# Entry
Amino acid sequence: MVQLGNLVWSVGTTAAPVCEPTGTIQPSMFNPVGVPGETILSITWLLFVICGGIAIVVLSLIAYAVVRCRRAKGDDLEPPQVYGSNPIELAWTVIPLLIVFLLFMVSARSIFELERTTPPEGALEVTVTGHRWWWEFDYGELGVVTAGELHVPIDEGKPADLFLTLQSADVVHSFWVPQLGGKMDVVPDRTNHLWLQANAPATYVGQCAEFCGNQHANMLIKVIVEPRASFDAWVANQQRDAVNDASVKAGHNLFLRTACINCHTIRGTVANGSFAPDLTHLMSRTTIGSGAARNTPNMLREWVWDPQNIKPGCDMPSMKLSRSEVDLICAYLETLK
Ligand code: CUA
# Structure
């Protein structure tokens, strides 16, 4: 188990902890890094202060009434009854109305500002598809399709804008990276949009925020905001087909002979499945199974040996390979950088 801000990721019996040490990432809405996150936080504080004020006033009046107006010993008289006090009726109608009106205006203004259906100028546009239980990121014209980890460029002195088009391949998921902005549901047969912003390079962590089945907790999102030059290098690498390394020919051939190719794509080979994450640049990602395990040589072997040990219920079955076959395939997969 790993404590991560106020979130804890726990993983299957054989799996190692997946996330970076505490301190590098703070998946908290109380630490926003852009306009959407800051706007939502300021509404949250406004609501908290107003509701807290109401609670204090109401509870204080109750406490006062309980203490001051309790029945005295030997006092059997009914207290004076008050009916139809216009000032009181007016006060408890008008004050709540004013409060609700204020909250409505503040929320409406923010919704108009944040819920964009067109991208802000210069924003990176990515189509996100929620799957049980992983995220697919399609960069459209850039020709990059990846899983779990979203790379975003940032220029010096300017915030990075990200405009997402959200779709679901199966059930309702919810895309939420708390520091970057609001939460948006990902709904089958419906297209939603989400504007996120980050004003500093870092890795921002999020999670699926709508219960979507037994591995809902293992739908990690990593948004890697990086300087333009490293983003461009990343894109150039992702655009390349997989290398065909002669030293891992046996693993390459074995992979292409198994059912792996029905679900996974490795560009440059006959593997072109689309049910599961694209593996063309598998080793450029830090986790396996959308955060179910770290992407290390050992964990990769455990994953290919039997994914159900690490992420029970996920769509990938154990391929019933021998340990030496797993080694061959993983040696090949490790060349997919
Ligand atoms: Cu996807 Cu919860």
